Amino acid sequence: MENTGNEPIKKVSIIVSKGSLEGIYPALIMANGARMEGIDASMFFTFFGMDAVIEKRMDYIKVATVGNPGLHMSTIVGMIPGMSAFATKMMKKEMEKLDIPPVREFITMIHDAGCEIYACKASVEMFHLAKKDFCKEVDDIISVGQFYEKSAGAQIIFT
Amino acid sequence: MSLKELQRDADGHLTNNKEWTEEIAKELAAEEGIDLLTERHWKVINLMRKEFLEKGDAPSIRKLTKESGVDTKELYALFPKGPAKKAAKIAGIPKPKGCV
Fold first, then answer.
1. Which domains are assigned to chain A?
2. pLDDT value, residue A71
3. Per-residue pLDDT tens digits for A46-69
4. Are B64 and B72 in contact (CB under 8 A)?
5. Which residues of chain A does B82 touch, with a Cβ-Cβ cutoff of 8 Å?
6. Is B98 an 8 Å CB contact of chain A?
7. Would residue B33 count as lying in a domain?
């Protein structure tokens, strides 16, 4: 797509590939923010990013306390049982103050705002999942080819 | 005062929210392609104004839906193409500063 540089963004396609809290939230905030601005949006969940829309997993998304240099916590501390749950609890408290909803509520809100939500076919097959394993907001399970078709004219964002 | 005489920012929001009246709101809505402000629109507009006057910023979409009783789908239907920004404009207040 040709973009002259100062053309307003009309459509975004956001790919979510990571299943940690810090991997999922930025994408949700960006998708919701796009709709708030009147920008068309669709989300494509792939690999562990699918946890955000898997019925049994979406309420248990956690911050990664190991291998996450942003937390400034040594690996050995991050390994302590309960550390990830603790960091997640702290972060959720801060998010609630900013009126950022829990994952499930956020997904419903984004979908109600008109954002389309898709899961990646290759990942679904790899993890032996089916449509019934996903929350009701997932519109479809689509291939990479279909994703590109649906993204015609969109800016693609990978998180 | 009619809308033409009032000062506005680059996005078309009133610079002085005290100049806002219900008549001005109707003119602003017409500019946004909303010809008729229903009781549901007013619920949202009044809540936006109240929150702004009390706290200095418009409410988030989540707060707006929870407190107005207008759900997300309806909100986007009432104010197509960017509800927070549009409702704020019609309510005579600046564009919301929050990200959600």
1. 11-61+102-158 (3.40.1260.10)
2. 87
3. 999 999 999 999 999 999 998 888
4. no
5. 35-38
6. yes
7. yes
